[in-house]
């Protein structure tokens, strides 16, 4: 039995993202961690993504005019990345490297077709001429001679495996309509060539393979809409010449009069195969879809229609499918269970699935699409295979006995009850959720609350939603509509809490929160219970609502006490701000803006949305950032006091991003000229100050060395004079 679970977007593929060029990815490879993948586009960029957070961890590009000609892979032993550009130029770098021009470079003597990285065998390099080398052997002599083994044949597909401790590379080639299979054992340097048995009306289109018990099982998707299986034993007589490999039919991709025109496929387990392609019927338009088939019983297990189209590429890692859908890279979770005939035809009687699956879309309750809603809401919890059963022991609600009802029926019966009783029932349901299913259960409760609001806007559970977000470790992906509803209601306290607690908020939502926070009226915010923990220690508000400047003395240091010891001009310039060091926003708005500053983001995805911020709000935000920057610079440790306060690095990063997004507009605004001049003077003063510190850095290091050499046994006072 197989099922497709929840799906989400990993990244966009438009030219503005820097991830892809709209023509599909060159490839997707596993990263150094099971939750990481490497995306290589058809140009010059590769990006490392953390899948669960849907966030890029690193992005590297070769120079303009250079092109990545094979997928970038990770060396799992050294955690280095390996790329080939312009066919022959090898690059190797680590996570901390930024500029690929400065990393290791080697020019090879022949064109590279692909690099395969094995977890326990290291990287293996396949050249276009069919010769194979380990990366270590190549690095010893990059210009070594490479043989041309396959003559006029063209490599169509390749894969590497580990059989015991021996790397094995398999690749297929094509010449004049004939297909060949090569098996290369690297340690023994044995190469075997086979000819693929072919029918007149059947042309191989896609390959995949796996190895088990010294036998390579090669699967081939052919143009006659069938998948064939070929067995290749590793133990072969070296004297044998080219053999013809017989093939056997594994799967016919047709069901109920419809035929799947597959473009790519992957093996999930011994009984299941996933195929991406176009499902065609005689009287209907072709529909692109992702399907899972049971090869044991020749049945279609599940499918998902993809109306936006795909590039025909399909990858599978860690029980996740990756494929392009429209202009985005989509990820779909899946699960496979042991095959049985009853399950394959949908007649298997199983125990009740986890009742967390019954947290349903409120709009779907009582409608025909109820079953689809159940499936979509349960997907996040199915991967835990929980045995949780949620019941309510209250029977005072409209004489409804809920003790033995599923959660979906409980919600349906509570549809028209007063808000207080509705929330009490949901609290009881959440209290009975088991630990393994807790996040999925709570996320489904939030979804039910949000959907109830969508059905009837008077049912906005403001306090209850805030209570849930504060009490449980949720994420944006578990309840994606929550922040959109909060933005619609201008629920700034809930938005603030989500920004501080959710690790995976999309940059578009972050910018929407920022715009709301900047534009909202200060008088309105005074009536809102905003969390002020991040500002209360460095912004004090007097009775006249004006900021009262407070000076925090740390380690006996105060700027006022030590003012005479510094250059007067530097001190004057360093303390100039547009408002005489008064915060340009009130404490409530400052606390909300701090939540935005502390949220996670990617510069690549944030910048396009930041450009949509109105000029007035952009200037106000920049003034507040500059105020924070000055505050940080006043302290020895450059750290703002308080909980959840932004760091100086976060402040500087946002200032740079905001200036990049709005520099032309800000320079043209008359009201921003004085402020920009003050910012320029302050930064210039800091540059001078740190320049002076750099001049005496050598002297201080020498004094420290001399002090370590001496070991005074008695108390002494030493006066050191720096000339």
Q: Short summary of the structure?
A:
The chain is of the alpha+beta class and 723 residues long. Among the domains are: 23-149, Methylamine Dehydrogenase, Chain H; 409-474, no CATH class; 490-540 and 581-668, no CATH class.
Can you characterise this structure?
By secondary structure, the protein is α+β, with helices and mostly antiparallel strands. Among the domains are: 127 residues, Methylamine Dehydrogenase, Chain H; 66 residues, no CATH class; 139 residues, no CATH class. Helices cover 29% and strands 27% of the residues. It has 18 helices and 31 strands. The strands form eight sheets. A five-stranded mixed β-sheet has the order 13-14-15-16-20, with no helix packed on it. Strands 22-23-24-25-26 form a five-stranded antiparallel β-sheet, with no helix packed on it. It has a four-stranded antiparallel β-sheet with strand order 1-29-28-27. Helix 3 runs antiparallel to helix 6, helix 10 crosses helix 14 and helix 14 runs parallel beside helix 16. The chain starts with a strand and ends in a 14-residue tail after the last helix.
What's the SSE blueprint?
Elements: E1 2-12, E2 27-30, E3 36-40, E4 45-50, E5 55-61, E6 68-75, E7 80-85, E8 89-93, E9 104-107, E10 112-118, E11 122-127, E12 132-134, H1 135-140, E13 154-163, E14 166-175, E15 178-185, E16 190-196, E17 204-212, E18 215-222, E19 226-233, E20 243-245, E21 248-252, E22 254-255, E23 258-267, E24 272-280, E25 287-294, E26 299-305, E27 315-317, E28 320-325, E29 328-336, H2 341-344, H3 370-382, H4 407-413, H5 419-431, H6 438-455, H7 462-471, H8 482-488, H9 492-501, H10 507-519, H11 522-526, E30 540-541, E31 547-548, H12 568-574, H13 587-598, H14 603-610, H15 615-634, H16 648-668, H17 673-695, H18 697-709
Parallel strand pairs: 16-20
Antiparallel strand pairs: 1-29, 2-3, 3-4, 4-5, 6-7, 7-8, 8-9, 10-11, 11-12, 13-14, 14-15, 15-16, 17-18, 18-19, 19-21, 22-23, 23-24, 24-25, 25-26, 27-28, 28-29, 30-31
Helix pairs in contact: 3-6, 7-9, 9-13, 10-13, 10-14, 12-17, 14-16, 15-16
